[in-house]
Amino acid sequence: MGRWPFPPGLAIGMTIAVFHCSGSFPSIQDWLNRLRIRFLKRREALAKKVAHAQTSVTCEGLGAFTNQPPFDSLPLPHCPEQLEEELHLEFYTRDNPDIPESIIGIDRTTIPSVWLPDKITVFVIHGWTNDINSTWMQGFKNDYLNYYDQNVVLVGWGGPYGAGDINYRYSASTTRTIGAHIGEVIENLIANGGASEDNFHLVGHSLGSHVSGHAGRWENNHYGRLIGRITGMDPAGPAFVGVDDRTVGLYTDCAQLVDTLNTDNIYGSTPTSTGHQNYYPNGGEEQPGCENAENTCSHFRAIRYYQESLNQECLFAARQTCTNSSDIPGSCSPCLGVCGVMGYPSAGYDDNVYYLTTNPDSPFCRG
């Protein structure tokens, strides 16, 4: 049975309805797209009723996840097994830069033969409406392998039960279970593959930042290991802002170093500082060059800043620190020289809130 089965009568009804309104039959692809949207909306409505009645969901190999506080503002999450083949991890190294060795579904015991336990392992995790084939994901992989001899793992969690759910709130809730799954994969690489928790770096965009946070927290809470680093590229704000609990998403307890790039406090990200090092380029709101662009421009600019920081030819230097992340640059004051560097080279600088400026076009770095 397919991902979204439907009764024959529904197909006829949809076709007649479209013909009546438009006077002509739609293309097959358009008809299928409309049918899929209608099915997903019905599934969402049913899921809301079920989620309201249920208090927990049990995921294979992970246990139960509840909708009790602090998660009571969201529906119950989907389980990793529901994503089926949409959940997959692609392992790349300099020896296999183009053809990955993949872990599909909820396999948490395989150790890829290409993976090198003595190297840093970077997990790159997308956010809502993206998937593993998103252009920026492939660009990250290529640049990482070009500049650094590391393991690069692209994490895909798309599809209607993951980041592709048309209801953002379900995707936001599912960051918990996908994070737990990745936490178990990391534990397998440590316990059975010989890696050190210090050598894991998770880089997530938007909801992917919170997937990263839940992965790090799962590893710490269940196995007592605090992974080396998590980078949140404009961590998603909706469903995470205003929740009076630090366990709902990315926070400082998730890794030894949590650094964040905050670029869209108006529409997409959280206005509060959730990391050890928190960078607010151009005040963390509308980014230069995004004035006449769609609302997501500033949200995705964090990706471009971080990717550009990989080459280290120009450092995104911060020369001001701030006392209030909601008042930038009003609460900021100059420091002596460079006090922080945004992006890949940020390790080694003090925990703080930083302000810096960028160019409106690439190269964005101003040094």
TrEMBL record:
The keyword Zinc-finger does not apply. Residues 57-364 form the Lipase domain. It is found in: Secreted. One of its GO terms (biological process) is lipid catabolic process. One of its GO terms (cellular component) is extracellular space. Gene3D superfamilies: alpha/beta hydrolase. Pfam families: Lipase (PF00151). GO terms for molecular function: lipase activity. The keyword Secreted applies. Keywords: Secreted. Belongs to the AB hydrolase superfamily. Lipase family. This is Lipase domain-containing protein. It comes from Paralvinella palmiformis.
